[in-house]
Amino acid sequence: MDSVQVRPMQEDDLPSAERASAVTFFEAERSTRRVSDPEAEPRSAAASKQWIDRMRFYLSVDPAGCWIAVDEEAGANRAVGFAISQNRGRLWFLATYGVLPSHQGQGIGKRLLDAALAHADGRPGIFSSSVHPGATRRYRMADFSLHPQMRMVGTVDRSTLPVVDGLQEGQADDFAWMDQLDQDLRVAAHGPDHGYMLDILRLVVCRDGARPGYAYLDDRGRASLLAAAHPETAQKLLWEALASSQGPTLVNCITTPNEWAIDVGLAARLDIGQEGYIAVRGMPVPAPYLASGHFL
Ligand SMILES: CC(C)(COP(=O)(O)OP(=O)(O)OC[C@H]1O[C@@H](n2cnc3c(N)ncnc32)[C@H](O)[C@@H]1OP(=O)(O)O)[C@@H](O)C(=O)NCCC(=O)NCCS
Description:
Helix content is 34%, strand content 28%. The protein contains 8 helices and 13 strands. The chain has helices at residues 14-32, 45-61, 108-120, 133-141, 175-186, 192-200, 231-243, 259-267; strands spanning 4-8, 66-71, 79-88, 91-99, 125-129, 145-154, 168-169, 202-206, 213-217, 223-228, 249-254, 271-281, 289-290.
């Protein structure tokens, strides 16, 4: 497709890229949905705004990892694909990646991923992968190992909640030791991503010098990133998340090296499900660790 150009993304591309992302993931969800899954729903206005805010943040921190495909024939600068990746120290991660259904299977995805991987410049890499067959094909062909992820779903049986001690509310003062823990667990610190997450999520920390850990929880008590020096600390943090959950909850991104999370979920009477992969290249699967889909 000669009319398609792959180039670095600019801030004024964001509205068009957001629309391409919303359509792409809505269709991907519809086509890979299992009969027991809820119907796919179009992205809400609030989620669109969050998407644009997050992409603007990536563009401000590491613009050279952010790529867009535009189709000149479809209208000047109309986005048909995007690959948003970031380097943090010695680590590369892929934050999001998609090509409009109308343009898939024509090599645009490969061109985008090649551009993002050139930015990695040989760094170890990690991201959370969908089950879309075009995506998993591209990732394995780029030498990533795909580790299946489990997830725990259901409503917590509150009679199972243990008394958890040693946890506190976290703040920006905690970032220095959290960055050190990140380096031990997943090659590099989250650095500026911690500030972004603290603005929108609740941070719970265990400041135990020998066995520290932290978790970011959303407003429904779901852990969107959890890191710990020891599985016992990780379990305490997850219990705190489950205690603050309201209604049906979800613990996502659980790989087999993280069975400590499965054990907590089962004790709380959640069910095991399976969804997607953690993709890694040049590094092991982190543990004790539950990755953030957005910041890994
Ligand atoms: C993943 C994605 C970005 C790839 O973009 P693309 O432009 O289709 O990629 P390419 O054409 O370069 O390569 C895709 C490969 O998978 C194949 N493929 C594409 N769609 C497929 C499908 N539905 N079933 C099976 N194979 C498929 C293509 O033939 C191609 O293989 P080939 O190069 O050996 O012929 C795109 O498919 C997509 O947006 N998927 C939905 C969103 C998603 O899951 N994103 C990843 C999130 S982690």
